[in-house]
Amino acid sequence: MDELIGRCDLIIESASKQAAYEIAKKALSIGKDVMVMSVGGILGKEKELFDLARTHRCCLYLPSGGVVGIDGLKAARVGKIYRVTLTTRKPPHGFDDAPYVLKHKINLKNLKEEKVLFEGNAAAAVKGFPKNINVSATLSVAGLGAQRTKVRIIACPHMLVNVHELYVQGDFGSFYTRSENFPAEQNPKTSRLAIFSAVATLERILKNVKIGT
Fold first, then answer.
1. Which residues are catalytic?
2. Hey, CA dihedral for 187, 132, 101, 97, is it positive or negative?
3. pTM for this prediction
């Protein structure tokens, strides 16, 4: 992997939460730009990676993923942010192998109505749902951090889309966004918009005109 990273100008991590940090660290340590898709894998270690990027004068890119409102959150951070809350609703089968569901022996079969699976902070959410709630990690890095970013995860049996609702409150006022995303065909645990977000990030890197915050 070291040889491959050395040959590239931009490394795109799309391996797993477990591999993301090491890949990013190796790339940034030798001055290579890197885009991390599995943002949950760097949560808690992001400051170290930020320092490496500054020291070696390279860039770390974190796509917005399937959530809408990262631009507003980044702008709000210039002032004071008081509250960041993410509520995620997905079809039950998307949570089948989530560590939190398995640990607590939550039965997702034959659900008749929506069921709250988790309420807590983003750090615990990413640990319990590493393939489902990557957007909470991105929100944490952009906003209040993993301990202060609140997350609610709900399984909805009659839902065909992945829904993310974001509420942010600060000294600027407040905003609320809701995205209803079709699941990716090859991976229902993620959204099509998350894939499009990665492509848009690549386009932003290459373009001379950059729109938005």
1. 164
2. positive
3. 0.91
- For residue 36, give the nearest of 56, 64, 55 by alpha carbon: 64
Other Cβ atoms within 10 Å of 203 Cβ, number: 10
Backbone angles phi, psi at 180, to 5 degrees: -115, 105
Segment 96-108 mean pLDDT: 94
Which position has the token pair 């980044």?
74
Arithmetic mean of pLDDT, 52-60: 97
Query: The CATH number of the domain where 43 resides is what?
Result: 3.40.50.720
Least confident of 15-24, 158-167, 188-197: 188-197
- Look at residue 155 in the predicted model and tell me its pLDDT: 96
Give yes or no: residues 95 and 144 share one domain: yes
CATH code, domain with 136: 3.30.360.10
Q: Examine the fold and report which residue of 46, 62, 78 is the final residue of a domain before the chain moves on.
A: 62
Q: Are 109 and 93 in contact (CB under 8 A)?
A: no
Q: Of 46, 62, 52, which is closest to residue 28 (Cα–Cα)? A: 52
C-alpha distances out from residue 28 to 4, 36, 65, 86, 134, Å: 14, 12, 22, 30, 21
Range 5-8 contact pairs with CB under 8 angstroms and sequence separation of 24 or more: 5/30, 5/32, 6/30, 6/32, 8/32
Do both 56 and 76 map to the same domain? no
- Tell the burial category of 146 from Cβ atoms under 10 Å away from its Cβ (0-12, 13-18, 19+): buried
